[in-house]
Structures are given as C-alpha cells and as structure tokens.
Amino acid sequence: MKQAIPNFSNKTALIVHRADGNVDALLSQLRRFNIEAICQWPPRVKDFSPVDIVFFDVDNGFDGMFPWSDAPIPLIAIIGSETPGRLAWAISQNPSAYITKPIGSKGVFQALVTAFHNHADRSDLRREITDLRERLRCRPLVVHTILRIMNLLGVDDDAAFHLLREESMRRRVSIEVCCQELEACADPVLSAISVFDRPAVRK
Amino acid sequence: MPSRHRGSFFWIGLRVGKKTKIPIGVLFSTTGPYATIGEAMLNGSLLAIDEVNGSPDFDFELAPLIRNPGGETVQYGVMCRDLILNSRATHIVGCYTSSSRKEIVPVVEKYDALLWYPSHYEGFESSDNVVYLGASPNQHIVPLAQYMVSRVGARVYCCGSDYIWPWESNRVMREIVENCGGQILSERYLAVGSTDVTGLVEEIRLLQPDFVFNTLIGESSYAFLRSFCDRGLGSQPAGGVRIPIASCTLSEPELRMIGDPAALGHITSSVYFQSLDNPQNKSFVQNYRARFGQGKVTSADAEASYNSVHMLALALRAAASAAAPDVLAVLGGCMFDAPQGRIRIDTENNHCYLTPRIGVSSAEAEFSVIAAAQKPIKPDPYLASLKGAAFMLDATREQDAAGRRRQSNLRVVS
Predict the structure, then answer these.
(1) Which residues in chain A have Cβ-Cβ distances shorter than 8 Å to B410?
(2) ipTM > 0.90 (yes/no)
(3) Which of A75, A183, B70, B392 places its Cα 20 to 30 Å from the Cα of B322?
(4) How far from chain centre, in Å, is Cα B82?
C-alpha cells in the first residue's frame, strides 16, 4: 500500500551551510516535521550513514564537498545567487530538489516530499538501466541458446523462445540468466529444460 | 508599522480617555456561500472584543475594523492590505476557508503583521505570521477516523465538496482506514454549492458502507443530509437502514438550518460543542445569546474566534507592544480558560493545544459528547507523529529494513 501522507519522523538532516537566519528558519521548519538536524560549515562529516538527507549551500559550495559522485541519499540545494555558474555547480551535484533563500515558512515541506520522491525514482531508474544493460550484454547468448533449441528440437524460433520463456518463469529468473544456466550445463541441454519433458510441448 | 519598544508600554493607536485603542482587523464573510459560519465567527470575535474592552485587566481597548469579503477570495487579500497599510492594523482576526487564508498569508508576511486564524483546517502549513487557533488535522480528522474505525467499521464511503479541504481530509481518512485493513468504497466530490446529491445517496444505498465520511460544506451538505434522511438511510430512522454520517464540520447553527429529523444522529469531531458543561462555556453561551439573540447557538467556529481575540489581548498585554515579533515572543506564556477548557499556543508551530471531542447530534440543535481526550493535545499540523500511532505500524510493510521497495516473489518474464 502506498503511504498517502508523507512522513519524515525521526529522519536526520545535515545542513551544509553557515549558521544564519536562513538556517534558523530551516531548523524551525524541520522540527515541525520531527526531523533532527545538524548544521555544519565547512562540512566535516566523513560517515554519512546516519544522515537521511542533506541540504547544501550553493553560494559557497565547492567541488569535492561530498565524498560521492552519485549521492546515496537525497540532496536539496539551497539557492541564493541565481547566477549561471552557481546554478551549473548546483546541477552538477544532482540534487533531488531545490529551495531558494530567504528560507521562510513555505517550501521546505514540498522540497522534502519532492526530494525523497525524486531520489527513489532516480534510484529505481538507475537499477532498471543497469538491469537492461546487463540483459543487452547477454543478447548474443540468448540468440545462441534459441538456435540450439531450434536445432535440437526441430522447432521454429517462436516455439523455441516460448519454451525458453516458460522455463525462465518456472525458475523465476530472467531469460538471460536462464540461458546462462542452461549453457553452463552444456550437453545435454534438453535434460536441463524441465518443460521439454512434458509430452504436450514436443512437436 | 508600530515600533518595537519592548516593555516601554508604547502603543501605536488612538489614545481616548485613559485607554489606548488598538486597531484590529476583523475579516469574515457574512454574506456569500458560507455566510452562516462567517456570522458565527464575527459574533464570537465581537463578543470577545466587548469583554476585553469592558475588563479592567486591560489598559487598552481593541478597536474592531470589520470588513466583509462576501466569500470572494481575492477580496481577502485586498482588504487585508488595506487594513494594514491604511488603518494601521497589525493584527487581523479572520478567514474561514483555506483559500482565503492562503490569500492573506503573503500579505501579513510581507508587512510583518499577524493573522489570527480561528478555523480548523487541513494542516500542512506553519507561517510565522499566522496564529492558528482552530483544530489541526491530528485534533479532529485523526481522532474521528480512529473512533469510527474502532467503534463502527472500516468500510467507508467518502463524499465531499470539490476543493482542497475535502481532498486532504479524505487522504487522511484513507490512510488510517487502509492501515486498519479497511476499505474506502468510493470517494465522490460535488462542486461547491451544488445540491445535486441524488447520485451520492443512491450509491450509498447500494454500497451499504459502515459509515459515510461527509466533507460536503454549506448548502451541499444540508441537501445531502436531508436527502439521506428522506431515503430512510439516516442514523436514527424508524425501520430504515442505519448508516452513520461522520464529519469534522457539522456545527450547531447548521443543525438548526437543516432541521430535525434530518439533523439528528450525526457524528462530528470538534474541539468545542455548545453542550459542554463547565462555567466558562455556560457564561460564553449566555453572553453570546444576550448579545446576538436568544435564538442563537454557539459553535466551534464562534468559540475559536472568541478565543482568538482573547489570546490576542492577553499577548498584547504581556508584550506591552502591538508589534508582531513582540507579541509572538510572549505568546507561549499566554493561557486562556476558553469555553472548551484551557488553551495555549505551541510556539514550535504557532498552532493551539486543543481538546478533541466526538459528539452526536441530538434534538434542539445540540451535540452530546460521546468521547473526549483527557487533556489538550499538542497540535501536529504536518501529521509528523501519525506514523507513531498504533494503526500506522503496518505502513512500511512493503519496505525492507533498509527502506528499499521489496520485490515481488513472482517473476513475469518479458
């Protein structure tokens, strides 16, 4: 079930910004959402594992400020100056949301909701791309396996793919992994494919 | 703008006789689509202003500048700006709908004035230039959902007027109901002001929910309750089907408008009912009737407006200044024995500690309290503590310990 009401209770935020009125306003907003926050400038944290979200100052930010290229947690950029150079640097950090100074009573909650959503979305997409790339890499192997099934059973490519797909679902793996497993068995391939034992699929 | 001479008893205003007059904007729609409620809110404010002005405890008088935006959202911003700039009012008591409040918030923030907002609302806002005297969602929607789901059932039909308050209220209801293993059977909206309720009533008759969550407002709600009763679906029908209707809005003046028997047996979640049995409320109801007519009934909206003015007066006295930052600085220390019980402001979010209650409507346009919190509850406008409640324990079941979305065991290969 999807959660209808965003909830940030007991999360920890790191605010990478000089302590000032903006940070005070941010801290007071975060308290209202039950978020614990610490403010640091310059950033000294080495271990980010207790941190769930980072707010960072774009005006004074610098390359190498964070120990990652792809942030494992959502980042929210605090924009002051809207100069092209500062905006380019902000974008290079891949933040999941932005807020603008002066920080007031509006905008922090929406930035949190947006940031957590975008970060999860981006992570899902990245996982999916990695998965698809791996499957693309295996394409020659799939073609090879289908050709072998066609030769061994005397069936056409559609029937061979259908058999392969059924076997993959039975094993609860992707077609590519199934092919890897079948090829690892080398000869005899047929005996490794349980669905081929069923008389109904023999042609 | 008033200067900020803390402790110097410096007042901006007109000195008449012994007492300084402090201009207070009073901004309620006493005409237009929600005029009944606007009038109750204006009355509550005016009664409190009379009491403050007649009390020897205050060395100032509140001078009300009454404006009627007539339910037109844009007028709220225009009138608020005029009150601040041309009438030198730093404090505005007013607004019922969220859209009117959203119109005013940028104005009071710009000029560092304070809006004293006396209505319950959907939450998810916390301006430093607004003092919220009405119930937050954790003080009315959440207790209602908990009460109904635990006592009545979890197959729920939601109907409301088509705007932000019903949308967000239904979202909270859905979250709680579904986390209890219940089901929202249907979620229907009518345009504000529409009385075309036949479809709603017919669908409810067919679906037979455990209860109806009604967020219709004004005329739509009255038409719905009357039609519901006519079809024999009311809470106390003779030989009819017993489907309770629960809401966070139905108030005493509205019960009177709807009339019996359609007004009988409805469940409302509110921090105030006219029937509360305590000396402060008795005197509030008595004074309200003496001032506005014996036929008048008090309501949560009237009480919150009354409380707003009293809290404002207490804060003005403690701050000895009318400037918003000075008033806010002392607000946390102000307590008022309101008709609903003692109230105070939570300075963490400028919302009010209030006592949730559940009432059921009975004859003579009254509610009988059937459940109540033991003490005033801390306001939680962002429902940040909702996760900690018992019914929310299952909310994260689709995530593993690291917060990742769990993959389904069944794999469909493509």
Answers:
(1) 172
(2) no
(3) B70
(4) 26
What does the alpha-carbon distance between residue B414 and residue B406 come to, in Å, rounded to a whole number?
Answer: 20
Contacts of B406 in chain A (CB under 8 A): none
CA dist B414 and B349 (Å) reads: 51
Q: How many helices (H) and strands (E) does chain B have?
A: 11, 16
A contacts of B397 (beta carbons < 8 Å): 1
List the one residue out of B246, B88, B286 whose CA is nearest residue B160: B246
Of the pLDDT bands very low, low, confident and very high (cuts 50, 70, 90), residue A189 is: low
Residue A168: C-alpha distances to residues A137, A157, A183, B409, B410 (Å): 18, 16, 13, 14, 12
Please tell me the distance from the alpha carbon of residue B279 to that of residue B366, in angstroms, as a whole number.
18
d(CA B161, CA B187): 11
Tokens encoding B414: 């493509």
Contact B127 A168 (CB under 8 A): no
pLDDT tens digits, B184-210: 999 999 998 899 999 999 999 999 999
Say yes or no for a CB contact (<8 Å) between B386 and A109: no
Complete DSSP assignment for B211-258? EEEEE--HHHHHHHHHHHHHTT-SSS-SSS----EEES---HHHHHHH
Please give the torsion angle defined by the CA atoms of residues A115, A111, B97 and B259, in that order, rounded to the nearest 10 degrees. Answer: 20
Q: Which of B175, B385, B405 sits opposite A9 (nearest CB)?
A: B385
- Taking the model in full, what pTM does it have? 0.82
Are A109 and B413 a contacting pair at CB < 8 A? no
Residues with Cβ within 8 Å of B70's Cβ and at least 6 positions away in sequence, in order, are: B29, B31, B32
- pLDDT interval class at B107 (50, 70, 90): very high
- CB contact under 8 Å between A32 and B413, yes or no, is no
Q: How far apart are CA B90 and CA B11, in angstroms?
A: 12
Query: Average pLDDT of chain A?
Result: 88
Q: Average pLDDT of chain B?
A: 88
Contact between A32 and B348 using a beta-carbon 8 Å cutoff = yes
Structure tokens of B399?
């995530």
Contacts of B292 (CB under 8 A, 6+ apart): B43, B47
d(CA B136, CA B140): 7
For position B179, what pLDDT does the model report? 87
The yes-or-no verdict on residue B1 having pLDDT over 80 is no
Contact A175 B413 (CB under 8 A): yes
The predicted-structure confidence for A147-175, as pLDDT tens digits, reads as follows: 999 998 899 999 999 999 999 999 999 99
> Residue B248: what are its φ and ψ, rounded to 5°?
-110, 5
